[in-house]
Design goal:
By secondary structure, this protein is an alpha+beta fold. It contains five helices and six strands, in the order H-H-H-E-H-E-E-E-H-E-E.
Length: 190
Amino acid sequence: MAAKKLSDDEKTLWRQVTERIDPMRESFAFEPSTKAKLKSAGVMPQRPKFAAFRVGEKTKLTPLTPSGETSPKGVTPNMDKKNFQRLVRGKLDIDGRVDLHGMTQEQAKIMLRTKLMQGHDRGKRLILVITGKGKQRTDEFNRQISGVLRQNVPMWLRQPPLSSIVLEVISAQQRHGGEGAFYVYLRRNR
């Protein structure tokens, strides 16, 4: 569809309107970010090196945590060291499984809450939650996005009412699903 051409009267009217108005602010000049300048020049800043860390080890002081504070020395898991090591190695007996494959976020959240609460009421301790790895894709900012359930399940487990019954959450061993599953260790039913 071609643009309509303005008549001489319309052009005159438009000129009169534009002469009477003042711009609200100065025009915006785009400045590329420092990171973009460095990237275009082929020079990227070095990321800080961190010591290797394994799940279950005590943390060492790191430069900064996301909150901006240094992390304390001697942070330990919420359970005794022996059981935690057995959990990390996948040596504890699994009391139940919750498979969330093919569910929407809302369905998965309801299923997860229901099954974990039932398991806790029945005295179960270790539940294997299977989320699947999800589709690997990139968003509009070219960031890698993994499965939605894989990202959200740990967050849901930290929110009430599940936060009151969940003691520890870690990724499962390869034989139990690897990156597509979590071990969820529940508190004792008292």
